Amino acid sequence: MQYRFCPWCSSELVLSIKTHSKKSRPHCPCCEFVHYENPKPCVGAVIVKNEKILLTRRAYEPYQNHWDFPGGFLESGENPERGLRREL
Prior knowledge:
Ubiquitin Ligase Nedd4, Chain: W; 88 residues; Nucleoside Triphosphate Pyrophosphohydrolase; two-stranded antiparallel ribbon; mainly beta; single chain; 2 domains; two-stranded antiparallel sheet
């Protein structure tokens, strides 16, 4: 599916390079939504210890240097639990 307008804020999408892959993708200049034509399965974890939550700082766009839960993309055919262990 190809979006013309942002599904989050309804602004018109523009083509530009917004990710570490250097590929041009439709993205919203207002809310920073990026439309990926090849969604990939991923895993993430919320780790709580002593009433504190573990966060990591994102290394790549989108949202580079923003705080996030630990996790990442699964390899082809990878079991989600095994992939989460690898990412952690």
